[in-house]
Amino acid sequence: MKVILIENVPSLGKAGDVVPVAVGYGRNFLIPKKMALEATPTNIHFLERQRESFLEKAGKEKQNVQALAEKIESLICTLARPAGENEKLFGSITSMDLQEFLNKHGLSVDRRKIILPTPIKTLGSFTVLVKLHPEVSAQLKVDVVPAVSDRVNP
Description:
9 strands, Ribosomal Protein L9, domain 2, 3 helices, Ribosomal Protein L9, domain 1, single chain, about 35% helix, alpha+beta
């Protein structure tokens, strides 16, 4: 089965591409989620007429994403977490923690776009990839520091 992508799908292609997919994947996932249309002659003809607006929309989206990437790269995410011996954290820092930090700074980023191979479990400085667009990504600097405890040991 061939489908026309309405939006960018990381494993398949960009919006406007005609790509072959498994029948079940197309009918049960892509089409119901409005990510693709079935590649019928009518839809292909419609796509050819709309290609210019698709390209213009994609260009504007890329510019917006590049501006977002510049803002992300200008930030330094400093997170204070309780740590034990050998600079190991009690718990870990995940993409959800980084998403909360970005949201607090007015930047809306889906946590699935924050590429963190494994959760951060130690103190130190890290660089995390944020893949905002197939052609645009940003590097977020993350500093994990020990939390200051208010508790007094008797």
